[in-house]
Amino acid sequence: MNCSYLHEPLMMLKEKGMISAAELCSMAEEYPCSWHEEPRMDENGVYHGKKSDYPNSWSLDHVLVLGDAACTSYMVINDEEALAGSDHSPVMATFEI
User: Fold this and answer.
1) DSSP states of 1-32 as a string?
2) Residue 12 phi, psi dihedral angles, 5° rounding
3) Tens of pLDDT along 52-71?
4) Which of 23, 39, 57, 96 could make an S-S bridge to 70, C-beta 3.0–4.6 Å?
5) Spatial CA neighbour of 55 closest among 85, 35, 74
6) Contact 59, 34 (CB under 8 A)
7) CA dist., res. 32 & res. 54, Å (int)
8) How far apart are CA 48 and CA 70, in angstroms?
């Protein structure tokens, strides 16, 4: 999902009982926002981004779950390859069902 916590599509899903992994997992606070500001695309179409200083609550990318699940790990992957691939960093979450 590509929207902030305050956008209507995510709010509607949350009203139906879906929960963000970042909200379920205490580790999420340790990670930055999944969107990184001002990436520059070079002539080959490759983004060159930098790590975001924004808090995770500004993320545009989410992993959602419905039902009883425990989030055992959460991570925003912001290594150099991830930053170069897009203006969004991948988000990964592991659940115990």
Assistant:
1) -BS-TTSHHHHHHHHTT-EEHHHH-GGGGGSB
2) -65, -45
3) 777 766 778 888 999 888 88
4) 96
5) 35
6) yes
7) 6
8) 35
Nearest to 78 by CA among 17, 45, 36, 30: 36
In whole angstroms, what is the distance from residue 7 CA to residue 40 CA?
25
Task: Please give the DSSP secondary-structure letter assigned to residue 79.
Answer: S
Query: Could you tell me the two tokens for 45?
Result: 């179409």
- Contact status, residue 89 vs residue 78, Cβ threshold 8 Å: yes
**Is 91 strand, coil or helix?**
strand
Contact between residue 76 and residue 35 where contact means Cβ atoms under 8 Å apart: no
